[in-house]
Write a structure and sequence with these properties.
Blueprint: H1 22-26, E1 29-32, H2 44-54, H3 60-66, H4 83-95, E2 101-105, H5 113-127, E3 133-137, H6 141-144, H7 149-157
Parallel strand pairs: 1-2, 2-3
Helix pairs in contact: 3-4
C-alpha cells in the first residue's frame, strides 16, 4: 500500500500511486513496522533532531509530550533502552508526525498492558481528527484495546 513491495492491480493512497509518487505521498504518511528500526547509536534527543531535519511534519515537542510519564529521557542512548521503551519511543516518534494517514503494524508489541491501554487512549483522544485516517494491523485486537474494532472504527470516523 505504501509502495514498499510489488503488487498486482492498482493502488491509490490519497489519490496517488505509491510506486510513482512515494516521496510526495510519504510527506503525509507515518508508518511504523512491527519491528522498531531506530538508529541504536543515537541518543533520544539526537533522534528527534534528525527527524526534525528529515520529515517536514515531525514535531519534537509532540514526541516529547507522548513520552511524558515514561522512563525515557532525552539524553538516553537508544541502545540502552529496553524492548518496551524502544516500542514507546517508536510510537512517540510516529505519533509526532502530523500525517493524514497513520499506518501501524502491530504497534504495541513489547508493551505492557498498562502502556498499551494508555497508547490506544492517547491515539484516539490526542492524535485522531476528522482529517486523519488510521490503519492498524494486529493479531491482538481484543487484548490490546478496551473497544472492539467496530466501535473504534466508529469513534475514529466521527
Amino acid at each position: 500500500m505504501l509502495g514498499l513491495t510489488n503488487c498486482e492491480g492498482t493502488i491509490r493512497v490519497s489519490g496517488e500511486d505509491p510506486f510513482a509518487k512515494r516521496a510526495k505521498l510519504m510527506e503525509n504518511v507515518a508508518f511504523i513496522s512491527d519491528v522498531a528500526s531506530l538508529p541504536r547509536f543515537l541518543r533520544v534527543r539526537e533522534l528527534f533532531a534528525l527527524l526534525s531535519n528529515i520529515h517536514p511534519n515531525f514535531s519534537r515537542a509532540k514526541a516529547q509530550s507522548f513520552l511524558t510519564g515514561t522512563d525515557i529521557k532525552p539524553d538516553m542512548k537508544i541502545k540502552t533502552l529496553s524492548k518496551g521503551m524502544i516500542a514507546q519511543l517508536h510510537l512517540a516518534v510516529v505519533m509526532a508526525i502530523d500525517a493524514k494517514l497513520l499506518v501501524l503494524d502491530e504497534p504495541t508489541l513489547g508493551l505492557d498492558i498498562t502502556y498499551r491501554k494508555r497508547f490506544y487512549r492517547r491515539l484516539l483522544e490526542d492524535y485522531m481528527t476528522e482529517e486523519r485516517t488510521l490503519l492498524i494491523t494486529t493479531h491482538r485486537w481484543t487484548k490490546s484495546s478496551s473497544c472492539s474494532p467496530t466501535s473504534c472504527s466508529s469513534a475514529m470516523a466521527n
